[in-house]
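Re-run with default settings, no changes from the original entry. Doing this only to confirm the output is reproducible before filing.
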Amino acid sequence: MPTGVAPLKAYCIGLLLPGERKSVEPMAARGGPRACQAAHQSLHHFVAKADWLDDAVLGVVRAQVLPALERQGQIRAWIVDDTGFPKKGKHSVGVARQYCGQLGKQDNCQVAVSLSVATDKASLPVAYQLYLPESWANDPDCAKAGVPEDESRCERGRGDNALTARQIDQPLASRISSRPAVLDRAERPDI
């Protein structure tokens, strides 16, 4: 198995297994209690130190999945949406007290903004980016958490719409046919 494949597989399985906490330690314990310490170290290294770019991974997914999706029917719409992931701690990048759609209220969570394309039968995320709230914009935790200094995501607190604009540029550059875009901005007008 190529380097990185086993930890990726273990991480994905950990996300899919039952259990409320999806951080590395409980995921390692659920995946194999006998080898918990080794699994924890492997998963932690994969999450914290893996040298891969999410845009590149999404590009591969688009290239492999989009043709199959389009064979089922033409793309009808682009969907821009934000998704909140409730978090108990404060150490994950972007965690802050903010609106979380899953909970229907403000609470500690991470938020990601996605752009998906949809046919009559299915949808596929083609761009996905972490939203960094204002409290993270100039926080030294950005660097401590591994967010590159030149990464514009740390400028999120300014309420710019560049996050969505950058996401729309990606599928356009990939020659995904443009369609009407739908979005929900009710709870988060700054995205």
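The chain has a mean pLDDT of 77. Strands lie at 77-86, 96-100, 105-118, 123-131, 181-183.
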